[in-house]
Amino acid sequence: MVGYRVGQSLGLAATVAVLALTIMLSMKLIGFLMLTVRHEALSQILGLLVLENGIFLGAQILVPGMPVLIEIVILFDLLIVVACFGVLIQYLIAHAGAAAVSSAAR
User: Fold this and answer.
1) pTM of the entire structure?
2) What is the spatial distance between Cα 10 and Cα 21, in angstroms, rounded to a whole number?
């Protein structure tokens, strides 16, 4: 809603680009909200993913030919995935024990 109002105040018509930028701004705000409100590590990682996907969408809409930025975004996605797996493995070790993790790795 806020992004749509910003687009209207700038005098932009309701085109596909304006609607996509509205979604991008909404995703960034939701990601920031998840980062600040949630205290669990997994929820904060999901907030980072939502925030990063909003930035990726905005980069694609504003400048479609930015390969360096897209590579950086993909690298950041990979970093978040590794962090998610790290949190999940720590959860498994804490709740299921090291024997369950070692047998799951086989």
Assistant:
1) 0.56
2) 13
